[in-house]
Structure formats: structure tokens, C-alpha cells
Amino acid sequence: MAADRVNRWVWVGILILALLWLGPLPALSRTAFSAHMLLHLGVVALAAPVLALGLVRSGRRLRTGERFATAAVLIFSLEMLVVWGWHLPALHEAAARQVGIFVLQQLSFVVVGAAVWWLALSVRRRSELVVTLLGFALTLMHMTMLGVLLLLAPRLLYPAELCMGLFGFTELEDQRLGGVLMAAWGGLAYLLGGLVLGWRLISPGRAAESTE
Q1: Fewer CB within 10 Å: N-end or C-end of the chain?
Q2: Which backbone phi and psi does 58 adopt, to 5 degrees?
Q3: What angle do CA 154, 156, 160 make, to 5 degrees?
Q4: What is the pLDDT of residue 64?
């Protein structure tokens, strides 16, 4: 039964990735920043949690013992570095123009995204919940900050040919739409994750597990 659940969740995650990567978004992301953001958020906030759930349901929880805090800091720091790094104008342009770099970008998104959710779904002790909750708060803040930066930028941060827009948007509107998506969708995903972690932290049933 457990194996069936694992297979189902893993296959659902793979299916989501297939729809994202084999659909129109990769091609559109070469000329529309908002399409890039839809693809990015689909990977880290939709496919990644499902894949992480499959790992945990199979019994493959992250076990670091006394080094949990160190592992958590590493994972959340790496996630922030990957997200902000690939949205630097030079790296974003390189990924949009070169297939190999685009593949590296997408793989790094799914790896760090799944790692964050895997960590969150693995925790049991109160101390681990607190650390993970702080990590989710950090992730929520930095993704919202990036979205707001893109939304409020008075000029294009990326080459105009990479921000041609969808649905008739101008280049600057396309960049701003990408910022809205990052702040709203990305922020909402990690806000909901943080709320679940917070509920688990204050739940009376957690007291028995705090000393495990």
C-alpha cells in the first residue's frame, strides 16, 4: 500500500514536470519574462512539494539528528542563492539563450525546491519545526522581496527581447507581471507551508514528540 502511494505521488510530480517542461512555457520563456516566472513557480511551488511528499510517504525522511539546524541553514541558503542567482540579468539571459544553461537552471530549481519541501515534510521534533518555520519565513520574505523589486523597477532589468510579453503586455509590463507572480504565487505557497508548520508546532500532539 505504501509503495502504491509513493509511486502515485512521484508519478504525479513527474507528470507536472513533464507538462511544464514539454509544454509551451519553455519556448515562451525565451521571449516573455512572465512565462519564465510561471515555469519557475510551477517547478518550485507545485512539482517540488509533490515530489517531496512522495519521498516522505516512502519513508525517506531527512534524518540529520543533531546536525538538523546546519542542514536546514544550508538548504534554505542554497535555495535563496539559486533563486536570486538565476534572476540576475546576466544569468537569466544566458538561460534564455542557451539550452544547456536553461536545463541547468531548471534542474537546480527542482532540486532546491524539492529539498526545501522535503525538509519541511520530514520534521518531527519541536526544535526542528521552529528551525524549519524560520526557514519558510525567510523564503517567503526573499521571494516576496524579489517580486516587489521586479514589480516596482522603473525600467527593464532584462533585455527587451526577453520581455516581449504575453496577452499584449509591453516589455515593462511583462517584467512587472513576473514580479506579481513571484510575490503572489511564490509567497502564497510558502505562506501556506509556514502556516501548516505553525499549526503543527502549537498542536498539543506535538508535545510527546518534542523529546524524540
Answers
A1: N
A2: -85, 0
A3: 150
A4: 64
How many CB atoms sit inside 10 A of residue 169's CB?
Answer: 17
Sign of the alpha-carbon dihedral angle for 32, 38, 43, 44:
positive
Question: 102 with 160: CB under 8 angstroms?
Answer: no
- Cα 160 to the chain's mean position, in Å? 26
What distance in Å separates the CA atoms of residue 198 and residue 201, rounded to the nearest whole number? 5
CB atoms within 10 A of CB 106: 20
**Residue 185: phi, psi to the nearest 5?**
-70, -50
- H helices of the chain, in order, are 2-22, 25-28, 33-42, 48-57, 68-86, 89-97, 99-122, 126-152, 171-181, 187-202
Residue linked to cell 514580479: 179
The answer for residues whose C-beta is within 8 angstroms of residue 163's C-beta and 6 or more apart is 31, 32, 33, 156, 171, 172, 174, 175
Could you say which DSSP state residue 165 is in? -
Question: How is residue 78 written as a grid cell?
Answer: 542554497
- pTM score above 0.90: no
Which amino acid does the sequence have at 103?
Answer: V
What digits encode the pLDDT tens for the residues 85-142? 999 999 999 999 999 999 999 999 999 999 999 999 888 888 889 999 999 999 999 9
